Amino acid sequence: MATLLRSALALRRTPCRSSVVRLLTSSSGASSSSSTTPTSHTPEPEPAPSSAAESPSLVVDRSGLFNTPEHSHGPGAAVETAMAKHIKALIRFRGGPITVAEYMEEVLTNPNAGFYMNRDVFGTHGDFVTSPDISQMFGEMVGVWAMCLWHQMGQPEAVNLIELGPGRGTLMADLLRGTAKFKDFSQKLTVHFVECSPALRKIQRETLKCVAKGGDEATTAKDDQTPDSVPEQISQISGASVSWHFDLEQVPRGVPTIIIAHEFYDALPIHQFQKTPRGWCEKLVDVAEDTSQGLRFVLSPQPTTASKLYLTRRMRWASLQEKAEIEHVEVCPQAMKVTAEIAKRVGEDGGGALIVDYGDDKMVSDSLQGIKKHQFVHVLDSPGDADLSAYVDFPALKHVVQECAVGASAYGPITQSEFLGALGINFRLEALVRNATEEQVEALNLGYWRLVGDGPAPWLDEDDDPNSLPSGMGARYKALVIVNDSCGPPVGFQKL
Ligand SMILES: C[S@@+](CC[C@H](N)C(=O)[O-])C[C@H]1O[C@@H](n2cnc3c(N)ncnc32)[C@H](O)[C@@H]1O
Prior knowledge:
With 496 residues, the chain is an alpha+beta fold. The protein has a domain at 122-267 and 338-359 and 391-487: Vaccinia Virus protein VP39 (Rossmann fold), CATH 3.40.50. Helices cover 32% and strands 19% of the residues. It is globular. The chain binds S-adenosylmethionine. S-adenosylmethionine binds at residues 16-18, 108-109, 116, 130, 132, 165-167, 194-197, 200, 262-264, 267.
């Protein structure tokens, strides 16, 4: 394994499901700024869109709603985006507030105006930067991990390499480029992207340099075609076949699988609960009393269906101390569902999964945040124009794997720094630096430090604004692995 790690490090670059609820307020979609939304609190006369009609509606007595002061909005804080109008219309249609999970799902993945659906939100000109965009070394190290796992799997002849929420596709491109010369491994891979955003699917196809099978220009996908309507795609980076799916369940079964989920789980909708004298109540999103003031958080007057179902399940896994001390809890049912599906695949088909995201090895309390143009914004401000992201509840994922009891085990979480360190990122940096220009060396060192460092940059001057400079992701981000029990502990997790 050590030789494999070393040779793999001699690689080489220089930085839904989805809601079916349509916008109630706009017939022309996200870009429409005019709205026909009535401003009164009367329910909309239109028939209910399908998912709204099927959702178990919350029985909420509006008169009993309580708006916690720390979650109120200042006057005029919310920007009246098309999505804000849609959310207000949805709340009016329901005749009461919606859950934070419903809000999050609409805001991120509504087909017409969801944050991820129609544009590129990544990079310095976007809203946030992720590890694969910071340095090529991230995707390369994940490639090393995947190749080692393939050896532990007994070098199967065919492997489904699945990435959940691939963003721009940068991680996969670096993985394929880095492992392309290890043909015994790279030629076994079939890439499956699970992606809800049509705009990102198109970018992923470009990043992977996809062409129609055979590479004939006439059959090469045109930009205006969705990947669903094009012939089978081949990545020119490594020759792997690439296909797209809306959720993991659509990816063919029966083939050993390696699954990668980097910053996917944090985008999955969470429910938020709060301990009150009336029991555990659920935080909900409502229209402000003065309708010109946008949206506000309220608490359900009593426990909701979600608190009875999801919170009860989550609390079964909590420690005595957590049960005694915690006042706010976030629960992500979709994360549990996806994890159960991963465990089942890995347990029955063989292979493993790598989940990298931010969070700690404990219950999540109150972590949901909005991010727009590289700044934190209030969760209810500019819905649809800001990302929403929540910490991942790693202990819950581990409990799900355990309860599935399908011959798969979870290892970790360990910090990103420990994970990348165990895979030899420092050797890779050394190799890259040897052939780099001065400018490239600086970029490589900065990228390395951002991936494995912790806290504010050490070269910060006292008078520098820490918010305007990068901080290390090495400790905040964690890696959790789920592997088939026949593989044994995966690289980086052997001592656990
Ligand atoms: C924060 S981005 C991370 C992107 C990428 N993994 C990276 O690290 O740069 C989340 C990704 O998950 C996708 N996504 C979010 N929710 C999804 C869902 N429910 N189903 C499929 N894809 C989803 C987004 O479109 C986006 O590609």
